[in-house]
Amino acid sequence: MDLSSRLKKVRDILHKENLDAFFISSHAQIMYLTNYLGFIAGERDAFLFITHKNTFLITHDLYFDDVSNLKNFTVLKRDATTPLLKILTTIAQDEGIKNVGFEADDLHVNEYVKLSEEKTFHFVSSSIAPIRIQKDPYEIEQISLACTVAERAFTSTLPLIKEHMTEKELSYFFEMEVKKQFADFSFDMVVAFGKNSAVPHHKPDETKLKKTDVILLDFGVKQNGYCSDISRTIFFGKPTDEMRNAYTAVLQTLDQTLILMEKEKDMKTIDAFARKYITDKNFPEFPHALGHGIGLEVHESPIFSPYTKDTLVSNMTLAVEPATYLSGKFGIRIEDDVLMTSKGAQLLTTSPKEIIVL
Q1: Can you tell me the distance from the alpha carbon of 32 to that of 296, in angstroms, rounded to the nearest whole number?
Q2: How far is 310 from 300, CA to CA, in rounded Å?
Q3: Which residues on adjacent β-strands are paired with residue 320?
Q4: What is the DSSP string of 250-317?
Q5: pLDDT tens column, 47-104
Q6: Full-prediction pTM beyond 0.85?
Q7: With contact defined as beta carbons under 8 Å apart, do 11 and 52 qualify?
Q8: Of 187, 192, 149, which is closest to residue 170 (Cα–Cα)?
């Protein structure tokens, strides 16, 4: 893995936007640029300060020893006597820094107010999110492995599904199959029986499985920090004609969308195609995006939606999830993870999508 090429992407932004440095606060970007997975999301354990000359990792005692030998970084310790603002000010004075980019979609308001007190430099709203859109070979390998682990858990969980079990029980059994592979969920799993499957992000509860129920599963795991995101819908007992037709409509929508991605690169157009395909089959369109990027975050740029300006390029990794939801009755969602190549969308998920009846 070549971290120097990742850091170069940030410095390219410095040149393009006439910035002297970039202050990075988001957990995912810090993981991406350091390949260190020990920091906890949301805890603000570390920050990066990247200038034209140097790359600084600023952390505290809990992590200092663990990261002190990271290649490409000068590691600085912040504490009560040497707070973050003092460290940034010293660097700015040493390197003559005036304009500092920051992640406007991540920096907290209180952090911005505090850091803006310093007059040596001033903050410029920016973003480095685009640097992670195209994956390198290492990232593609990890995401592919995350798909494999998740689908193994799916396959090994199917025989455990029994009448009268609860959604929570099935979620637990699935998690144990993930843990057996020394992995963790990349997000809280969706397990939805019957009418609960019409709620896209239903949280597993005490609902018991009964014959003729639809079972909607939305799951993913992390492999060395990289996420998969997969949905499968199965039937417990013989499905009704309406259920079968809805399933076929969603599956055909997914298949035709992936074919369209071979030639169409405008993600807004692709999203519109999938919505129309579903409604032309006389089923409701899905109330969420058709899909999104996957990587160090389970939802990241780019996105398929009616409002997006994103376009497909090679080496994007994406989740594509057409669906239909019939309120009070059932929902169907089928979600694959794919890698964009010069020839179109290459499947990273391989678990069967033909109708499964238990």
Answers
A1: 8
A2: 12
A3: 291, 336
A4: HHHHHHHHHHHTTT--BHHHHHHHHHHHHHHTTSPPPSS-SEEE-SSSSSEEEEESTT---B--TT-E
A5: 999 999 999 999 999 999 999 999 899 999 999 999 999 999 999 999 999 999 999 8
A6: yes
A7: yes
A8: 192
- Identify which of 119, 183, 193 has the alpha carbon closest to the alpha carbon of residue 150: 183
Q: What Cα–Cα distance (Å) separates residue 285 from each residue in 23, 174, 281, 292?
A: 41, 29, 10, 17
How many other CB atoms are found less than 10 A from the CB of residue 347? 12
Q: Under 8 Å CB-to-CB from 140, ≥6 apart: which residues?
A: 315, 317, 339
Place of tokens 């949905």: 231
Residue found under tokens 């120097």:
4
Tokens of 94: 């040493």
State how far the alpha carbon of 292 is from the alpha carbons of 25, 228, 335, in Å: 22, 11, 11
Residue that is written with structure tokens 């990075």 in the block:
24
Cβ pair 235, 357 in contact under 8 A: yes
pLDDT digits (tens, 9 = 90+) for 186-241: 999 999 999 999 999 999 999 999 999 999 999 999 999 999 999 999 999 999 99
